[in-house]
Amino acid sequence: MKRLKKMIRILGLVFVMCFILFVLNALWDGLFAYILPWTRTRFADYQSYNSFLMKYNSYDDFLRELPMDATEPKYYWHHESWEAFVAYSTTLPEETFNTLPDERMKFFREREEEFLADKIIYSLKEDGYYYIDDPKWCDNEIISEEELSFINEVVGNPEAKDQYYYLVVLRENCAGTTCYNGVILNDNTYEFIEFSANVVDPDKWHY
After folding, report:
1. pLDDT at 180 over 70
2. What angle do CA 60, 63, 69 make, to 5 degrees?
3. What distance in Å separates the CA atoms of residue 54 and residue 69, rounded to the nearest whole number?
4. DSSP 3-state assignment of 206?
5. Most buried residue among 55, 86, 101, 175 by CB atoms closer than 10 A?
6. Which DSSP category does 138 fall into?
7. What is the mean pLDDT of residues 180-203?
8. Residue 15: helix, strand or coil by DSSP?
9. What does the CA dihedral 122, 126, 128, 133 come to, rounded to 10 degrees?
10. What is the pLDDT of residue 17?
């Protein structure tokens, strides 16, 4: 009889612990993960990274799959309060590097045509190169150079940041926030970077 009571107590404790863990996990996925600062840079592969972004609704318009010949991927994801900063980079063979940017530019143009709230606020012109330390395209925007510093986390050669230039930047307006999505290239290293910065827009908050 004593053994049975002891077994019941143990099973009860296990049930309570499992229930607590279940509640904590639900709170994390449903509330805490969206409020508490959280940074993640390690992922098993690009598929797991993309699935993670979809789960936390960070940004769902990156490439669904990297090209087969892509190498040296680096990832960054940071969520704080209502803001999210996301980027990844990869190195491509020259031939792929010369074709993929055109495909992504086409995607952004189609996105702009499809959604009225989306607007391309910068696209590369022959005499209009803007580098990641000189984001003049956002002079009249709410995002600042400091907020774009997260891109440095995925560049392959941070000492030569003057080699990384913007290809395109699209602005997406959401309730209370503004999202800036874009592509950055490096012609010397054949690096391809996609980024997203979802920042609070003070003009949309009324107290």
Report:
1. yes
2. 155
3. 24
4. coil
5. 86
6. G
7. 90
8. helix
9. 90
10. 64
Kindly report the pTM of this predicted structure: 0.80
Q: Is the dihedral of CA 28, 193, 101, 183 positive or negative?
A: positive
Q: Tokens 């049930």 belong to which residue?
A: 15
> Token digits for 41?
């840079």
Instruction: Quickly tell me which residue has 């999210």 as its tokens.
Output: 84
Q: How far apart are CA 37 and CA 60, in angstroms?
A: 20
Residues near 118 by Cβ (< 8 Å), separated by ≥ 6?
A: 111, 112, 170, 171, 172, 173
Read off the pLDDT of residues 8-55 as tens digits, 9 standing for 90 and up. Answer: 566 556 554 644 544 444 444 445 555 667 889 999 999 999 988 888
Q: Is the pLDDT of residue 191 over 80?
A: yes
* Token output for 97: 């590097």
Residue range 120-172, pLDDT digits in tens = 999 998 777 888 887 777 766 778 777 888 999 999 988 888 899 999 999 98
